[in-house]
Amino acid sequence: AQSVTQLDSQVPVFEEAPVELRCNYSSSVSVYLFWYVQYPNQGLQLLLKYLSGSTLVESINGFEAEFNKSQTSFHLRKPSVHISDTAEYFCAVSGAGGTSYGKLTFGQGTILTVHP
Amino acid sequence: DTGVSQDPRHKITKRGQNVTFRCDPISEHNRLYWYRQTLGQGPEFLTYFQNEAQLEKSRLLSDRFSAERPKGSFSTLEIQRTEQGDSAMYLCASSLSNSYNEQFFGPGTRLTVL
Known about the structure:
The structure holds two protein chains of two kinds.
Chain A: E1 2-6, E2 10-14, E3 19-21, E4 23-27, E5 31-38, E6 44-50, E7 56-58, E8 64-68, E9 73-78, E10 87-95, E11 105-106, E12 110-115
Parallel strand pairs in A: 2-12
Antiparallel strand pairs in A: 1-4, 3-9, 5-6, 5-10, 7-8, 8-9, 10-11, 10-12
Chain B: E1 5-7, E2 10-13, E3 19-24, E4 31-37, E5 44-50, E6 53-57, E7 65-68, E8 75-79, E9 88-95, E10 104-105, E11 109-113
Parallel strand pairs in B: 2-11
Antiparallel strand pairs in B: 1-3, 3-8, 4-5, 4-9, 5-6, 7-8, 9-10, 9-11
């Protein structure tokens, strides 16, 4: 079984400031890690994923996340946020391979609000 | 639009009534998942299909809940004798059965039980 903890329920920042959304997970097996984003009145969209290989993964809109196995973390960062990044962000984990079937376990979500 | 679709988008019902939701996955996806999301929480896994076979059900899924995927394409989720605690967003996702099966989510059905 897996669990995910997102340490901040709300993160307010000013436009062009850096931001970090924290995510810790626990699992007894190897995992895949994901960040999903939910914009107001829209469905969940995959932002980025870690499957294997390089521990630093990037999205097309400037977000990055680093897999840290020793700290069981997958924090999401962006060096300079825009108003349009205002959304709720969910960290998720699934078991890697075997019989996990890819079932996702989500954190509670972090609401990122970017102020002008 | 070739994404995951769900119908209806909103449903308001009275306690004790039965409701049924439909999910149409991306056409070539053989895996289909149902999740439930309550206010202030992340989505929680309910059940999973590979083709027409229901392979896993969460303990969250009481006997009042039933899901089907009769021909391995669309799926339905039925809730019998609804309770106020069933009020939530019900999300459907689909994926291929590859090594990491990226899941694509539908817009959800918001259920309100009065």
